[in-house]
Amino acid sequence: MMDNVLFEECLKQNNISNEAFKIIGNVRKSQPSRKVKSNGKNVYGFYPSKKMGVTIQFESHKLELAGIYEKEHDPNVLEYYDQPPSFTIKYDLPKNSKKKTVGHIYTPDFFTIEKDWIGWEEWKTEDELIKLSQKNSNRYCLDENGEWRCPPAEEYAKKIWSFLQNKIIKEYQLDLSKKYKIFRGLSVR
Hints:
Blueprint: H1 4-13, H2 18-29, E1 45-48, E2 55-58, H3 64-73, E3 77-82, E4 87-92, E5 101-106, E6 110-114, E7 118-125, H4 126-135, E8 141-142, E9 148-149, H5 151-160, E10 171-173, E11 178-182
Antiparallel strand pairs: 1-2, 3-6, 4-5, 6-7, 7-11, 8-9, 10-11
């Protein structure tokens, strides 16, 4: 974990606005916004992070834990936070729904600070994304480049981080199965 001097230096190098500085500072000083748990289909747990000096939660031992391992050993990753502060997302429901729009509190899996990128991350398997997009393509969808997106979360991020631009979602091939990190929707340039 960076000390405050290194943190401020990192943000200055990336031309971070005062508003964004406050948001990032809030993430850094906040406890995880929720405790992870099992829904009967997942294995959750805790990882003792040497990089962060704290225990990091994961809700999937096959997906999020793999993300933690990646972050722990990637020298480009300076800091990462599990279950960062939640925010509200809004999106249209399918046409056959009684309501037209829905909004709810959304908690991304991670908030990550890298040397050249800062933002929220959501980790899902491709199978899960397919099911979620069939349920409501306005929340998760494939874009014209065949990349998975979460437009409502990206819309929130654009409002808060107007100086940041969308970045193509990274795809990962892990030993167990094909995994996707989605809504890695912000990059510092």
